[in-house]
């Protein structure tokens, strides 16, 4: 269960994905915490009540992702 990174690590290992090649997108602090615990960058989408975590990116529109992944 989140924020334990076990599920993320399982997927990374199963599909042989490098952490530097992916990014997590979430809408809650819990998503950011899980990503941080797994060592994966995270985009926080539309934080309604602000946020207490430290995501690498914060966006309010999905089109902003294009600027991040370039």
Structure description:
The chain is built from three helices and three strands. The protein has helices spanning 6-14, 29-38, 65-69; strands at residues 24-26, 42-45, 57-59. The chain has a three-stranded parallel beta sheet, covered by helices on one side. Strand 1, helix 2 (29-38) and strand 2 (42-45) form a beta-alpha-beta unit.
Helix content: 25-40%
Give the strand tally.
Answer: 3
Q: What's the pLDDT, averaged over the residues?
A: 92
Give the distance, in angstroms, between the N- and C-terminal Cα atoms.
31 Å
Question: Which descriptor suits the 3D outline?
Answer: flat
Query: How many helical stretches?
Result: 3
Structural class: alpha/beta
Low-confidence residue ranges? none
Largest sheet: 3 strands, parallel
Return Rg in Å. Answer: 12 Å
* Strand order in the largest sheet: 1-2-3
**Pattern of helices and strands:** HEHEEH
* Beta-strand proportion: 5-15%
Layout: helices, strands, pairs:
Elements: H1 6-14, E1 24-26, H2 29-38, E2 42-45, E3 57-59, H3 65-69
Parallel strand pairs: 1-2, 2-3
Considering the chains and any ligands shown, give keywords for the structure.
single chain; 70 residues; alpha/beta; 3-stranded parallel β-sheet; 3 helices
Brief description of this entry?
The chain is an alpha/beta fold and 70 residues long. Helix content is 34%, strand content 14%.
């Amino acid at each position: 269960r989140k924020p334990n990174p076990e599920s993320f690590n399982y997927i990374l290992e199963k599909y042989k994905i490098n952490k530097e090649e992916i990014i997590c997108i979430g809408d809650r602090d819990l998503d950011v915490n899980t990503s941080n615990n797994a060592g994966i960058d995270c985009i926080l989408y539309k934080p309604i009540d602000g946020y207490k975590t430290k995501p690498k990116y914060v966006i309010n529109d999905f089109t902003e992702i294009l600027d991040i992944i370039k």
